[in-house]
Amino acid sequence: MKRLGILISGRGSNFEAIADSIDAGRIPNAEIAVVISNRPEARGVETARRRGLNTVVIPSKGLDRETYDRMVVEELRKNQVDLVCLAGFMRLLSAWFVEQYPLKILNIHPSLLPSFPGLDAQHQALEHGVKVSGCTVHFVDACLDSGPIILQAAVPVLNDDTVETLSARILKEEHRIYTEAINIVLSGKFRIEGRRVILT
């Protein structure tokens, strides 16, 4: 049984989608070992507790990156986590954190990376006037939204789209491909050549 550690900062909709996929058997032989939030007020904290999941709040306010990361890694190790999934976790991980879990940290981002990294990706896409946007699941490295890409899904950008309507269309795809990407990584059926993740 593979053990997942989920890091959240907000409502945790991707975390819920992962939990639903595990419950439904779409991610076989996996369980959520711990949900960690850096914000006590995050809506996902309440959701995780309601689902009976091991939920830990480690407030990040006022702590430098590596000090905080060491606290989180200690909690992940305590829970024997095999794979770390960022689900709306609004902190950049230190190089030290990434070194502890090589190719074992995933993130989902609401754009077709490398376009529109960072915050407000949907707003960036609309401002830029792109006709297609989407989402990306990638391995995490020490730089922002820049690790090797595992899966992407595209959605059209419509003329009358707002940030809200585009975000909702992208979110549906996020929930779908995050489950697929977790299955790929847990199965080990991939190799990395340069920046490319080759599915085997």
Task: List key phrases describing it.
single chain; 200 residues; alpha/beta; Rossmann fold; 2 domains; two-stranded antiparallel sheet; 6 helices; globular
Task: Please tell me about this protein's structure.
With 200 residues, this protein is α/β, with parallel strands linked by helices. It folds into two domains: 1-101, Formyl transferase, N-terminal domain (Rossmann fold), CATH 3.40.50.170; 108-200, Formyl transferase, N-terminal domain (Rossmann fold), CATH 3.40.50.170. Helix content is 36%, strand content 26%. The chain has six helices and nine strands, in the order E-H-E-H-E-H-E-H-E-H-E-E-H-E-E. It has helices spanning 13-23, 43-50, 65-78, 95-100, 121-128, 163-187; strands at 2-8, 30-37, 55-57, 83-86, 105-109, 132-139, 149-156, 190-193, 196-199. Helix 1 (13-23) packs across helix 6. It is globular, with a radius of gyration of 16 Å. The model has no long low-confidence stretch (mean pLDDT 97).
